[in-house]
Amino acid sequence: MKKLIISGIAVVFVWLMYQYPKAMLNPGELVEGHQNLKENCNSCHEPFRGISNNKCITCHKLSEIGKDTSNGKGETAGMEKILFHQGLSDQKCSSCHTEHIGLKPEMPLSSFDHSLLSEPVISKCAACHKQPADNRHEQFSSECKSCHNTGGWKSGVKFDHAMINGDTKNNCSSCHQKPDDSFHNLINDNCNKCHSTSKWIPSSFDHTNYFILDKDHNTECKTCHTNNNFSTYTCFSCHEHSESKMLKEHSEEGINDISKCADCHKSGNEHDIRMNRSPGNGTNYNGSDNKENQNRNFEEKDREKNHKKNKKDSDGEDDENENED
Known about the structure:
Blueprint: H1 2-19, H2 21-25, E1 45-46, E2 50-51, H3 53-56, H4 83-86, H5 182-185, H6 221-224, H7 243-251, H8 291-324
Antiparallel strand pairs: 1-2
């Protein structure tokens, strides 16, 4: 019974090969240049041996592919890139030139396996590639492999900024585009004051110039800077004061915009205020009183508020006593 099943499968297989030879034997469409060979498999394949270079050079002359020349150039003018054919460590044409992948296949050069190249070709990128003509690369005489690898021109780039000479080293914008956001637009210092050449993020930042992180405000960035936006902040996320109460207290001082607390309050001390207010303007400050006078004025206002509050509480107690009598 087992032999009968095997014999039946063999008969079906032979019949399918006879009826549908392309579907059974042809793994895919040949490229456009090989369309005249699609009916003759033996043009490229040898029985039981596969693809042979000898079959390729039946049509492609050695001089055309740069294998039969002494200077690396073929018969056709301007074919300088043929040089690398002479330096291939693997001499099989099929290692790079694949078939049965469609009439007009996409074969990007980025997929080329550079390990097929032998020395010294693999170390001379300019033998096949053009030298980049931009201000980033013009100042370097180092080999490409100092930064790039053959797996990808941009992927895995390891650039050592120590290779930069002259003023360019301290001028990041000569190669990098300056961040265009409200936070960085306010900073005139060089990038290296916060960032390092090894990584853009994380960065070191002197927060004292904007807000003093004292023991009462030693918190995580996201507490004040929400949604990962460090160009904005809020103080209402942890302060016990409600926004409406803060607005009321500041409006008494002629301040109607309370969205930028750090413009006046550089620290958590409510009396440590940069509030040199110009007459007739409740939101802009240009310098009139010194800090000592400001603190004194606010302390007096606090004492006055506390006095009014205590008096109000005292009057309330007197009213309750009268009602009891």
